[in-house]
Amino acid sequence: MTLTHLDAQGKARMVDVGDKAASRRQAVAEAWVHMQAETLQRILDGGFEKGDVFTVARIAGIQAAKRTAELIPLCHPLMLDQVQVELTAEPQHRRVHIQARCRLEGKTGVEMEALTAATVAALTLYDMCKAVDPAMTIEQLRVCEKLGGKTGHWRHPALTSQTD
After folding, report:
1. pLDDT > 70 fraction of the chain, expressed in percent and rounded
2. If you write DSSP's letter for every residue of 116-150 in order, what string do you get?
3. Given 7, 16, 127, 164, which residue is catalytic?
4. pTM of the full predicted structure?
5. Which of 9, 81, 94, 104 is the most buried (most CB within 10 A)?
6. Binning pLDDT at 50, 70 and 90, where does residue 152 land?
7. Domains of the chain, earliest start first
8. Where along this sequence does the record place binding of substrate (predicted)?
9. Binding-site annotation: residue ranges for substrate
10. Catalytic annotation on 81?
11. Is the pLDDT of residue 70 over 80?
């Protein structure tokens, strides 16, 4: 079976995964939001009128993962078993690390859902803080790891030398 987004005539289509066996699949994605030290401290102190920035960004990321097929053309709608979005302040680097983990038992991977969750969490953090720090940057969005499916366990080459 060839997995491609092109049909025999070269037209875009959703990949047919009907004949694939379901398996346990998981993907982890991450991103960083860099900001002024004062902005990060204000987040940690709960100083934004819009609410707890980390909680709102976490919820936004989870909701986005569940709606990935509505956002990404040709992406399969999936019944996710679990979505986790964690935001960790890194004051020494003036940034927030965002990690999204998605899991399911299915016929296709969840990399797009993890990437979408991390992206929307980062965008939400930016949106909530942009009035005080419009120069924030969202950087290094990437899939860190995926498990399951035909490829088995894959880890981003930049992370292979690190231990869990």
Report:
1. 89
2. HHHHHHHHHHHHHHTTT-TT-EEEEEEEEEEESST
3. 127
4. 0.88
5. 104
6. confident
7. 23-151 (3.30.70.640)
8. 74-76, 112-113
9. 74-76, 112-113
10. no
11. yes
